[in-house]
Structure formats: C-alpha cells, structure tokens
Amino acid sequence: MILMEVQKKKVVVVGAGITGLAAAYYMQKEIKEKGLPIELYLIESSLRLGGQIQTVRRDGFVIERGPDSFLSRKVSMAKLAKEVGLEDQMVRNATGQSYVLVNEQLHPIPGGSIMGIPTEIAPFIKTELFSWSGKIRAAGDFVIGRSGIKEDQSLGQFFRRRFGKEVVENLVEPLLSGIFSGDIDRLSLHATYPQFYEVEREHRSLMLGMKKTKPKTTTPQSASAKREGIFLTFRNGLESLVEAIEENLDVCNVMKGVKVENIERVEDKAILSLSNGKTLDCDGVILATPHHISRQLFEKHGILQSLKDIPLASVATVAMAFPKACVTQEKEGTGFLVSRNGDYSITACTWVNKKWPTTTPEDKVLLRSFVGRSGDEAVVELSDSEIEQIVLTDLRKVSKIEGNPLFTVVTRYKEARPQYVVGHKVRVEKAKNELQEQFPMIKIAGSAYEGAGLPDCIDQGVNAMHAVLANLKLS
User: Which SUPFAM superfamilies match (predicted)?
Assistant: First the structure.
C-alpha cells in the first residue's frame, strides 16, 4: 500500500511586531495541537523581532524605548505571557496621584475622572484645574440633550459640546492626545472611544452615564482595600515577551533582515517576492506590516489606497537617569500630562521610579518624558543633545534638578503612530473588503486598524490567524 504524502500549505506572517509575533505563535500552536499540514514562515525586515517593543537594560535600570505596559483588563497580553512562561514575571504599576500641568502649576487629576470625564461631584468642585465658569459650563452635561449625530465625529467636537472648552483643554485633551499622540479635533470618536458615544445615546449625560457604568466596589473588603494599579509589565521589561516568543517559535521558519518587495496572485496563491531574491508561493498570508507599507505593496493592484488617509505622527521619548539626591519633587505621584496651552515642549512625563519601582535602583531616579504630537513634531527632528536640553529645561520648571543626568536614552519614532482620524473605520473596512475580493488568502492586522494597544494588536493577530485557517479549509 502506497501512502500519499499530504501536500503542506504554506502560511507566511509578514512583520514581527507584537501583532505578527502573536499571529505566528498561535498559528504554530494550532499546527502542533491539531497536526495541521502547514509550513509556517515569519518574515521581518529588520534584524530583530518586536517592532516598537524595545527594552534598554543598563546599570540596573530597565528602560522602555516604546510602549511601557499594557492594560490588565485586556487579557490577551497576560494570556500570551502565561503561554510562554512569563506569568511570574508580570508586575503591576504602583498607584499614585497623576497631575496635569496648567499655567505653570501641577494640578491633581480630579478623583473619579474616567478619561477626563468627572463621575464624582466633590473632587470636580474642589479642583483648581478649572475656573468656576469652566465648571458651570461642564455641568451643562447634566441638561444638554443627545447630539443626534449618527455619523462619525471628532473627539474634540463631541467633548466640547458636552463639557465646554476649558475642561477639554485642561483635562480631556491632555489625556486623550497623550494616548494617541494625536489632535482630538481630528481623531475619530467611533474608532477610538465608541463607548462614549454609546453612553451618551443610552444615558444622555456622560457624567451620569459613566458613573452608572463604572465598576462598583460594594464589599467592605474592596471599599477599604488599597487601590490596585491597572497596568502590567514584566520585571525585566516588555522585550522579555518578545524574547520568550522567539525562543518558542521552534517549528516556524524565522527570516530576519528580509523584505517583501512584491505580491502577485496566481490562482489561489499569493506569490511573495523577497529582497533576498527568493519567492514564496503562499496559501495564506498575514500582513502585519505598518499600514503604509501594506498600501504600497498593493498600489499597482489599485487596492488598499484608502489607507493613505491614515496619517502618521512622529514622537520621541527621553529617559533620564539621576542620583536620587539630585532630584526634588514637590508633589508625590507617578507623573503628569501637559496642557497644550503651556509653554512646554514635553507633552507628558512619567516618574518611572515611582510608577514602576522594579525598573530603577533604590538610590536613583528615572524620568521618562514625551515630546512631539500631531501638528507639533519639529522637536523630534533635533539632535539627541538638543532634545535632551529642551526636556531638561522643561523638567526643571516642574522639579528641582541639580546637575546633568547620569545618562539619557532618546528614542525617535518618525511617522510611526497611526492616527485614527474621522472616518477611520470606513477606510479600514474598505481596505479589508478590497483585499477579500482580490486577495482572499491575505489578511491585514496591526496598530493602524482596530486598536493600537498591545493587547489590541495581539487580538488582531489572532483573529487574522483564524481567518487564514478558515480560508485554508483544512478541516
């Protein structure tokens, strides 16, 4: 009896940021657990995996160049960490007061605020972050009706209508623009915070609606318990996860320093032409590259061109290490945001040694500042020494800092932060529909599409993996 060898399907993941790594890891898991006849490849244009996740470990410090943590309530990141044996390395942020820098003063973010939306009256009344006229205008949220706007709108338009100019400029805008490095007057409500639209539609008042929908602490234990941080990272930095995933990719062909230069379709296969001169005939492809790279690959096919309207912002992070004796902070807390109206180049600063104690030796201080945002990105183009001096000058307006840093780590991300501007969901849906029609074996995923947070990217990678498997019809 002659046994016919099953012809293996070839699946390629392009791009080894967290999206591509998750897709490759879980595809490999499916192959192993179900004995699937799949030959798996992971292609990365740079010489390292992880994309913007990069950790500097120096002199006892753990410094993140890119993202520094992930939301604990979004479980996919912690689940992946457990899968690769890092569950015991996860650490939660220390809780502490956060501030907004307005008119040269650090003002505590009012207690009970959810993304800048007040849910408790007393802290909002007591805060000096807003004038009385600003507070009275914000109270209009209790009586203002639903907007009636069903189509997409900007975050700025939505929040100014409900709370007025002052609350938005001094609290909502620093919070939201800090998360997205974007302009709230361009950012899409439906693509970034659709839950606010739903709260207004259901409860009319955002303040009352957010108060009703926020998690309750009803037991005596929870009411008296110490507040727990909502973010997680790893004791030795986020790159620990990248390293662990790479170690676990034992049946995946990992190709570093290789670019996909062209994509064609021949019948039910995608033909990838690579920068090393080779071609891959693929039965399934997960394209986890930056969206502008994906768009360029399909330009001659006339699809994915709606992605051109997803702009990119440039930002830089500046981490500075000091002896503890050289830094005096008048406020106790974990960091501050900066109102756009102030005369500052930095947009935010994390007091890392306070927020993440495991990152810093006990006798040292670590400050991580952010510069650059949509519409104000020139500072990112300056030299490292120029950026360092600008940031140090700004920090000395807020804290007493003697001498120069022990060392500084400057990281630039030029045109690297996708902006979910108004109409974003329509653009992404159009691109995915075009791809499904002309290249059904290819799926796109990543931070430019359906969430930029690390767990969001993992979810997209996993969803793309399942979609490719479904298209292969192996079962």
Answer: FAD-linked reductases, C-terminal domain, FAD/NAD(P)-binding domain
